[in-house]
Amino acid sequence: MAKASWQGTNLPRVGGFNRAVVLDAIRQHGEVSRVELARRTGLTAQTMSNIVRALIDDGLVTENGHAPSTGGKRRVLLKVVPDAYSAVGLHLDPERITGVLLDLAGGVRMRSRRRVPDDTSPEAVGAALARTFHQLVRRSGIADGRVLGVGLAVPGPLDAANRRVLGPPNLAGWADVPLADIVEGRAGLPVVMDNDATAAAIGERWTGRADRAGSFVYVYLGSGVGIGVVLGDQVHRGVSNNAGEIGHVHSGGGRECHCGRKGCLEAYCSMRAIVADWRAATREEPNGEPVAATYESLCRSAADGDATATRVLRVAATRLGQALASVVSVLDVDRVVLGGPALRHVAELVRARVAKVVDAQVWAPKVRPVRVETALIGDDAGAVGAASLVLDHAYSPRLTTLLGS
Amino acid sequence: MAKASWQGTNLPRVGGFNRAVVLDAIRQHGEVSRVELARRTGLTAQTMSNIVRALIDDGLVTENGHAPSTGGKRRVLLKVVPDAYSAVGLHLDPERITGVLLDLAGGVRMRSRRRVPDDTSPEAVGAALARTFHQLVRRSGIADGRVLGVGLAVPGPLDAANRRVLGPPNLAGWADVPLADIVEGRAGLPVVMDNDATAAAIGERWTGRADRAGSFVYVYLGSGVGIGVVLGDQVHRGVSNNAGEIGHVHSGGGRECHCGRKGCLEAYCSMRAIVADWRAATREEPNGEPVAATYESLCRSAADGDATATRVLRVAATRLGQALASVVSVLDVDRVVLGGPALRHVAELVRARVAKVVDAQVWAPKVRPVRVETALIGDDAGAVGAASLVLDHAYSPRLTTLLGS
């Protein structure tokens, strides 16, 4: 029998949801009293007291001194126990694997980087990912039972239902790879997987505290371009978990894209495309260096004031801004966050140009000024986001808790 | 004190939410038993029994015979009482005012059309809207207390917080008009206002029964182009209630738009733009006829097999399809619904072309085949949508009921 489009809710579900709401509020607001928590979450003092006691019993929250006196009894402050649990995040980029160990408070405890092996077969790459995981756990000295799981951030598109990577054009030779299962088999812990842009958006919310609440579009600029969509404090994943696949939308031009079609955004805004533009402008031949390395040279030149490098980046940022203006118009969000490794050295240059284009092209600016900001997390956005997937899955309030799924 | 980003919930809120869930399920699924309702909504038999009794006491639901026997006791069927309440919807288009009276079951009881008066001042147009409202209520013979309110669908953008129309480029001379208050003053009933595309999307869900649940993009094709975004059975309105303003996103071309910028989607896909293309192709001079009338002649010609008219419409539909491919890619929805008066005579021609372009340009087609359909509601989509705003506001399950706002 088909389910109704809305499911009702009940007391056990409400209990689980409210517990997640309280933990989320403590995490986001730092040190906070029970009274303040009750006010912030709309829950009664009695409900709050019960939930906090359970969170303390479970070791997730601890009492941490007293608030300054405001006349009456000084209030006990609560905070999350960072060491209670942690998660490992692994980010697979076409050229690099990055791993982090993230604690419950969103702090990065360990970090590890390695090149993607020359043998780029799924098994070899899966083994390299698992090695990064084991190395992080070993070096951290954290007891096995305290690591909740592994988050995996990969370039989209994904077949999320079957935990498979569908052959992103940036990873040659990969088609329909069961990567989550490969890594899970080698790591011995549950693996959750998402595309890198969505993971980075969750990471920004998880580690970024209260100022990353609400609705925003997170633009992940790595080898390619993807966006993570956060609406009303919930990540929007879409019917096939591929929301935010903006890299291959038609951007108005006719340039050939590595995906085989023409005019895609990544034909103009990927690292590869920008490097090609730079080589054309400077009449330099490719020198066999990896794309990311040449791209970084280009960005250093722009940061040092080189006019050609600056112009090439501005042209790409203009096209990115046009695509984002459409996204902002359709979603009606008032915040765009730019993040990812492609911004290194040039974050403000790119931000300023995107902001200018968005401001000029978004309709109804009077009722909807749009802020364009750079991310709180830098180069490691993908890996931190991957680890956040695990913590978010375990601890964030979610409507499916309340309504069933 | 700032609220936490998530609010907790409690029993009274759960009660109100579950009641709306049950009414919505009865409305969407037609005649249905308590047992089936409990299964569909995930609520217990006891909770269901209590909620249904209250809905019957309030006159919103009635018992309506028995289900065929399946061996045991025959189950009593429930259905919504259509006459319990109704709402008036008014749609203001640049050339026409359409009004409908909609009953609680989503049936259109009365319909009224008039031309926008020659005096297009906000007061004169507001008076014409109010006349349409009074005429509908008078002709229907429905008791005043049974009309819940007035819904108003207007071209965006809006300043929703202040209930003002911000001067859509299709309504010359309108800038920052408090239209909802003007109509409310003259109608004597509460007025809710939204842009026409969002209203039409809600109408499609309200009157369309279960096959319009879930997530979809509704494309409203009137004088201009707007979209309504429905995600997980909730209308997505955005931070300023202007989500779906797609008419003035950059579509890749350089043609001047009536909004003063270049390359907007409406510079190619509005009725005015398509009529101009037709005149250019047939070398006909403008004849002083309203744009909508010429547009309708064009569509009749295309329906009769005229090659030029068909080609002009296909070119516009191609550009529309490209814009929608981007929206589908970003949101990851698997359904696009095309509706509105601009489809009259040519719905299948436009649908087929849009479907072809979307299919070719949306990434990850393997995990996300996208259906492109025409709307269940035809010409009156704006007005039916407007009335649905009122019913939806009063009776649909919404998360703000559960979580506070």
TrEMBL record, chains A, B:
**Pfam families given for it?**
MarR_2, ROK
Q: Name one GO molecular function term.
A: DNA-binding transcription factor activity
Q: Which PROSITE patterns match?
A: ROK
According to its UniProt record, which protein family does this protein belong to?
Belongs to the ROK (NagC/XylR) family.
Q: What is this protein called?
A: ROK family transcriptional regulator
Species this protein is from: Saccharopolyspora elongata
Q: Which residues form the HTH marR-type domain?
A: 20-63
